[in-house]
Design goal:
It is a single chain. By secondary structure, the chain is mostly beta strands. It has a single domain, classed as Lipocalin, CATH 2.40.128.600. The protein has one helix and eight strands; from the N terminus they run αββββββββ. The protein has an eight-stranded antiparallel beta barrel. This is Peptidase S12 Pab87-related C-terminal domain-containing protein. InterPro entries: Peptidase_S12_Pab87-rel_C. It comes from Podila minutissima. Pfam families: DUF3471.
Length: 117
Amino acid sequence: MWAREKAREKVIFPPRVPTKPPTHELGGYVGEYLHLGHGTATVSLGDNQLHISLAAFKGVLTHYHYDSFTMVFEHSALKMGELITFSIGADGSVSGVSFSAQGAPVVAVKKQPTVAA
């Protein structure tokens, strides 16, 4: 199984640039990301690691390079990871996330915190 996972990584993932850290502290990626078809993906921070939940799936994000992370869901038949990439808006803050779902690209927009009046 491990060989198949490594083969998939070579096919789907771009070559890793190991010396390129995230552009933000991990807390900058925390939030809710909305997609009309897939619902809300929630990214949280715990034990100095990013976690993601999407519908019934929960998983851990491991830094890959730049603003890309590998995502492996817990308790799932999907043992192979996916690469997700956070996008940065014109103001420099994290504004969205993209990944693949069943071979189709998914782009979710970060929900902005509501400001009390």
